[in-house]
Amino acid sequence: MNATRQSLEEHLGAQQVLRGSDQARGTALVIRCIAAVASAIADELAHAALRGRLGVAGGTNVTGDQVKKLDVWGHDVMLDALRQCGVCAALVSEEAPEPIEIPGGKGPRGVVVACDPVDGSSNLDVNGTVGTIFSVKPSLGWDPAGPAALTPGTDQLAAGYVMYGPATTLVYTAGNGTHGFTMERATGTFYLTHPNIRIPKKGKVYGINEGNISTWHPGQRAFVEYLRTPDKATGRPYSLRYSGAMVADVHRTLLDGGLFMYPADMSDPTKPKGKLRLLYEVAPMGMVVEQAGGRASTGTERVLELKATDYHQRAAIIVGSPDDVTRAEEFYRR
Questions:
Q1: For the chain, which residues make up each domain, given as ranges?
Q2: What is the pLDDT of residues 154-190, one digit of tens each?
């Protein structure tokens, strides 16, 4: 059956021909490396309980999250692979306070990768779905290259994620649509199974941590109440689905439509506090969904236009079907 399917390697080659630039070649090499790492992570996740890799490693990372053993392992494996691919000039990782410079990746094809190697790691000990999220930007020839990661999300060359569930799925965009691949476990090869994904204009499901409702913007609270209120004419109520792993919730939204939301904490209205990280969670997911015909907003502005001032900066996100995101923004303006 797979003889008739296009592999990720073949798909990247076709995308590279379309772009025809040094940066396109560098981007393709990086995504190949990330796919190889994803195969290794999928295997490690399947055997983590048997290999003693569940539980905490001790301490917290730079963003204050408790560090799991698989967070550390995933970071190390990702860094080793990017060092070997020859085009990654720097890595911004959730598990490192500052960018890690990679001298071997400098040059005209050089790119900067921002990555959360194991997203949703709080799900690990209960055998829940987790993922990997990545963003690729040009290094701009800078040395050190790390600061090139701070440019707006509109500068991304590519973005994507891997979801480790019943199947291991890799979804990416290089600015020419969003495409999904499923890994054949026997070989670790990814094959195109979801070409040119298009998100429905409107959905029936929303995902959000409602435990934080007391901290939300008034418009966010009113919007969720609107989604929960029955009205046949507008297809309400929406159903709530929330897994605690951004990759799983965004993947469902991408395929079925609707919304994933992680709004800012407005306990102090003068200092809104986002939860998810802009460079390696919010911006890459924003690009993936926009390239599939969706939208990604903070509630008041497009997330891809946000410019980071810190490598681990946080931001709010409302992402999904275009009509649903537009309606959410209307509530924020009231």
A1: 2-194, 205-333
A2: 999 999 999 999 999 999 999 999 999 999 999 999 9
